[in-house]
Structures are given as C-alpha cells and as structure tokens.
Amino acid sequence: MSPSGMDWRISLHPFQNLYFDEDGFVRKYNMFRHERVSHSSANGGNCYFGLQDAKGLTVKELAERLKVRFPDLMAASAGTNYPFVGWFTHMLGVAEIGALPVFSHEFGGMSGGMVFTSVPELLLPAPPYPVIMTSGNLRFLWAEKPCLNNDWHKAYQPVIDALKDNKVQRVPKYPSYTTDLLVHAAYWEGAVYYLHAILGFISEIEYIETRARRADRLSFFLVIFDSEGQLDLLDAYFSRVLMTDTSYRLNYKIQKFCQQAIDNIETAYRQKPCRFPNPYFGGSNPLHLTRLEYLAASR
C-alpha cells in the first residue's frame, strides 16, 4: 500500500529472496538473480507488470503470461515449499471474502506476527519467510533446502556465492528434518564448497591444521556447519582422508588430531548408528564429496 493509501504496488520475488528483519519488515535478499517484476496501480493501471497485452486477462491467464515473460523468475522460484503454499491457500480463502492482505513499506512491520487486512478486525498469520538470526555480532538467515532437480553437487553454490554480495548472510541449514540421501549429500558438498569459495581453503590438510589451532578463520563456519554438533562427521572424514593418503606427510600434532577425531566419532556412534547420511560412515567417501584439492585445481 502506498503512503497515501490510494494506490497499491506489487513486486514479485522468489521465496528465498525474502525475509523478516528484527522489526518485522519484509526485506529483500539478492540470492537469485531475475528480471525486475513490479507494478504500481498509480502508474500502470491494468497494464500489469508492463505487459501491454495483459489488459483484461483473468487471474489464471495473467499467471500463465507471467510464466512465459519472466523465465528467470520462474526458474529461481522452482522447488517444493509446503508451508508457503499452505499460507498462500489460506490467504486466498480469506481474500475471497473481501479481506485482502495489506503490507506497508513505510509504516511498521508485522503486528505480533500477523498481517493486517482490508477488514480492520481480521488479521492473517504472517507468511513463513525466514526470520533474521543473530550470533554475537553476526546477522544471518537459514536458507531453505535448494532445488535438487539438477546436479546436487552444485545445489548450494548459488546460496554460498550470494554471501559475497549481501550484508545479511543466508546460510545452509542442517537438514536434520529428513534422512534423504541427496539432501544430506548436497548439504555436505555445500560445506566443502564454502571452505574453498568463501574461506579460501585449497586442501584438507590446510583445513585440519586450522581446525586443530581453533583459529578464528573458522568461527562463522562453525556457527553454520556445527549448529547441531554435526561438524565432527566432516572432521572425521577429512581426517581419514589424510591418514590414508600416503602423499601427505603429517606431523605428530596433526596425526594426533586426526586420530582423535576418528576415535571420537567411532565411539559416539558405536552403540547407536548415525541417523542421517553423512561424510564418514558407509565407505571411504559415502557421499561422493568433491575434494578440496579438486575444487582449487578447477578454478
């Protein structure tokens, strides 16, 4: 709604490009690039989104036209999102009785997690956008599960590459809600990619040496990838790589760290196997993760 209350404006974005800040405002995050898709009733009238041939179209016809005219937006929006679909269906049901959702960019955010409507006494639950998180001075968002329709090795690369261009970090969330093999493989491949693309690691031994020193270089990486104590699994995998690869010459301190990492994991899961697919159990490289050396060599 415009400040005057006389006009309305709309802008279309992929779900993962939107979030709630600390004050309840909906903010935009530049993770997926796409065409600018916006409309103002004051300037565009019923020429929706600048489409000259959209006048007089029904809602369904306009939706089909948008799919054709804005392919990048459609591609960035691909995926499964049951919570948002549920909210959107509920919102449509309420809108059909005349209570349209009302958002204002200029005045206040959500009211107690609710959205105002055009009927004053009726509020809607807020859409299930991610909410800003904090860890010390860091502000970040958990990213939704990416689309795995293509190469799962690269599923989290857009998420991680976007960290370079945004003040608010949007980071992979540990998928402890599922035991799906490809979801976990994509997550751990994202961790390896983060180590190289964001932190500049070029080998497993460089990572293990840094981990053994408890260096600050890994501080935010730990917030992300040890959120539920899961990083020990990656440490054990990297340690096994170093201990079995004869090309590495490890000093005593690193050998001790690697052996301890492996022993800790073996002990932790001796009585009860790990519930989730992971980098350590199930073979020398059960998730077929890319080696850091290979990532470095490919750039």
Query: What characterizes the major β-sheet?
Result: 3 strands, antiparallel
Q: How many β-strand runs?
A: 10
Q: Can you tell me the overall shape?
A: elongated
Q: What is the strand arrangement across the widest sheet?
A: 5-6-7
- Our Rg estimate from Cα atoms comes to 23 Å
Average pLDDT: 87
Strand content: 5-15%
Low-confidence stretches: none
Q: In angstroms, what separates the terminal alpha carbons?
A: 47 Å
**Tally of helical runs:** 11
Q: What does it look like?
A:
The chain has helices spanning 41-44, 59-69, 71-76, 82-95, 157-161, 181-197, 204-212, 219-225, 231-244, 252-268, 292-297, and strands at residues 9-11, 18-20, 26-28, 38-40, 101-102, 114-117, 123-125, 133-135, 138-143, 169-172. The chain is of the alpha+beta class and 299 residues long. The two termini are 47 Å apart. The chain has eleven helices and ten strands. It has two domains: 9-125, no CATH class; 133-297, no CATH class.
Write a concise synopsis of the structure shown.
Helices cover 37% and strands 11% of the residues. By secondary structure, it is an alpha+beta fold.
